Amino acid sequence: MLAQQDAFEAERNARMVKAVYVYEAPLRLWHWINALAITLLAITGYFIGKPLPSLAGDTSTQYLMGWIRFIHFAAAYVFAIGFLGRIYWAIVGNHHARQIFLLPIFNARWWSEVFYELRWYLFMVREPKKYVGHNPLAQLMMFLFFTIGAVYMILTGFALYGEGLGEGSWADTMFGWVIAALGGNSLQVHNMHRLGMWVTLCFVIVHIYAAIREDIMSRQSLISTMISGWRMFKD
Amino acid sequence: MTETFYDVLRRQGITRRSFLKFCSLTATSLGLGSAAAPQIAHALETKPRTPVLWLHGLECTCCSESFIRSAHPLTKDVVLSMLSLDYDDTLMAAAGHQAEAILDEIRTKYKGNYILAVEGNPPLNEDGMFCLQGGRPFVEKLRETAADCKAIISWGSCASWGCVQAAKPNPTRATPVHKVITDKPIIKVPGCPPIAEVMTAVVTYMLTFERLPELDRMGRPKMFYGQRIHDKCYRRPHFDAGQFAEAWDDEGSRKGYCLYKMGCKGPTTYNACSTVRWNGGVSFPIQSGHGCIGCSEDGFWDKGGFYDRVTDIKQFGIESNADKVGGTAAAVVGAGVAAHAAVTALARARNKTGIEVKQEEH
Ligand code: HEM
Ligand code: HEM
Ligand code: SF4
């Protein structure tokens, strides 16, 4: 439904107009805050498991691990609250805002466009299509790796956080079951949370590459769209 | 007239003075405060004695060893005389058929009213033949005695989780008690072994208050397993400061820095070692310079190195950890992206210099 609407809109608009307003301000703001939060989370998270070289000197004047963990938790709150805000925006925003939460999996045309995009990335077709919102392949990837990934990182992250806050704390009450559900040994949850960081990193590599590549290669703007909100068509 | 615990203790030669001391000791070790001491005394004086049967399955007897070394001799005397009356094939005087007869007697006389303490676990493969007692598989004895008990105490990591005899590939199929007995309240007191004071306190609590202490999600008593080693570790300031021992004999380890980088499992282990400590409060592993190995956590024997912080994940089939798997994946993705970019650039260059791409009408 969405894709059809998209495609319809694209076809109608692209012929006549050169620019469409796609991403509203709250969504764009969220995108960049979220990107920053994830960057901080990945860096600090890496050093939580593999700490920096030991510091010498008076213990009472140092708090390196403390700060690293503090930044991780602060960024985690930004990430999690941002994600909640993003869900809210999916409800009240325009229909592009819903794309990363709802996949039109029963729509044959959408699937055929997913495969079209795949062929485009495999150099099997010469011409990319035009899309107002996300291209269907990007939408699928964002749903699988970002939306599901974010829920996974929030569930495992706050479960670990609840261990620090202690038994009976809000985080333990709301998320403590995650540890029990994953076998009960939080060492496992640490490892799985850490693995989640690498999955996120893989998504980010592909995502940034695709954004830059499509910005150059495709028939529409991308990076500037995520900054200004306007999708510009080049032909 | 039915016998009370107090009657038994007096008969065992414990004075009233010692008895009252024991009650206040227990009250404080349970974190109940001194006001609870008279309550405990009253319960022990008036309530009919609840028998405890102590079974041994596949195990190494380290739980019993720990138990009989309970710090305060008074606690040991009292609790032992509470227990040894009934059945514990390692500690009791009776042996052979005489001993096994006691099991039957308690089961019928105190039907639904005795506590079953299990040290070790039953192996289930080959119909339980890997652990035979009195010519019968242990699992049968366990099922029989469990059928009429009031509650079960799973002593140690064997009974609670399976422990080393359940390590992959677990040839005997050693199985924790709660996976065999599913219709009785079970309290897990994990550890390899559990701390003596924790064991005596749990028994006393159950005998005096006739109910299970409050349990956490995993079925462990909250009062002793409510916090991680890391939460009360005296090396924690070094952790927060980022001061770690990097090798066993380096400057940091001599200075007593945090053992996190040496694989300490304190941050993921729920137990009372960093508060109650061992051998009468003398020390505990981290205080002796070795990281916690997480012996009271499920699967600690199968979760990769005791000396790694980011440990191997067995699900990957090979010895590998999150960083190796994830790092490799990221490198592959990175290389893929670079190759893709190169092909893209080539195709673009060819298109520019060669035949113009036919402009499609859109
Ligand atoms: C994309 C998001 C995130 C990434 C990439 C990330 C990454 C990481 C990594 C790599 C670790 C180290 C794991 C280890 O080796 O033990 C870690 C630990 C942790 N993370 Fe996250 N994390 C994310 C989100 C969150 C969230 C939302 C929370 C919620 C509060 C959170 C809370 C924690 C906690 C409590 C720890 C353990 C800290 C400790 O043991 O001292 N994380 N994170
Ligand atoms: C941690 C880093 C990042 C994450 C997790 C991330 C995640 C996302 C997500 C979830 C969306 C979908 C937005 C929505 O529909 O709500 C998106 C869109 C987008 N992102 Fe990122 N992003 C990151 C970094 C970047 C960077 C560095 C760039 C620029 C080079 C970028 C460029 C874009 C663009 C251009 C779009 C819109 C795609 C389109 O128009 O179809 N992102 N990103
Ligand atoms: S030695 Fe272990 S338990 Fe103690 S602070 Fe370091 S990591 Fe935590």
Quick take:
The complex is a heterodimer of chains A (235) and B (362). Chain A is built from eight helices and two strands; from the N terminus they run H-E-H-H-H-H-H-H-H-E.
User: Strands across the major sheet of chain B, in which order?
Assistant: 2-1-3-6-7
CATH fold assignment of chain A: Fumarate Reductase Cytochrome B subunit
- CATH class of chain A reads Mainly Alpha
What structural class do the secondary elements of chain A suggest? mainly alpha
Quantity of strands of chain A, as a count: 2
Q: How many helices of chain B does DSSP assign?
A: 14
Radius of gyration of chain A: 21 Å
**Shape descriptor of chain B:** globular
Structural class computed from helices and strand pairing of chain B: alpha/beta
CATH H-tier superfamily of chain A = Transmembrane di-heme cytochromes, Chain C
Going by CATH, the architecture of the domain at 5-225 in chain B would be: 3-Layer(aba) Sandwich
Q: How helical, in percent, are the residues of chain A?
A: 55-70%
Task: Calculate Rg of chain B over CA atoms.
Answer: 28 Å
Mean pLDDT of chain B: 88
Helices and strands of chain A, in order, run as HEHHHHHHHE
The assigned CATH architecture of chain A is: Up-down Bundle
Count of helical stretches of chain A: 8
Question: How would you characterize this protein structure?
Answer:
The complex is a heterodimer of chains A (235) and B (362). The model of chain A has no long low-confidence stretch (mean pLDDT 91). Chain A has 235 residues and is an all-alpha fold. The longest helix of chain A has 32 residues, at 186-217. Chain A has a two-stranded antiparallel sheet with strand order 1-2. Chain A has a single domain (2-52, 59-233), classed as Fumarate Reductase Cytochrome B subunit (Up-down Bundle). Chain A has eight helices and two strands. The model of chain B is unreliable at 354-362 (pLDDT under 50). Chain B has a domain at 5-225: Rossmann fold, CATH 3.40.50. Chain B has 362 residues and is α/β, with parallel strands linked by helices. Chain B has helices at 5-11, 16-29, 36-46, 62-67, 73-83, 96-109, 138-147, 156-160, 196-209, 222-225, 236-241, 251-254, 273-276, 322-353; strands spanning 52-56, 87-88, 115-119, 132-133, 136-137, 151-155, 186-189. In chain B, helix 2 (16-29) crosses helix 3 (36-46). The chains are: A mainly alpha (235), B alpha/beta (362). At the A-B interface, helix 3, helix 6 and helix 7 of A face helix 11 and helix 14 of B. The structure holds protoporphyrin IX containing FE (2 copies) and iron/sulfur cluster. One protoporphyrin IX containing FE binds next to helix 2, helix 3, helix 5 and helix 7 of chain A.
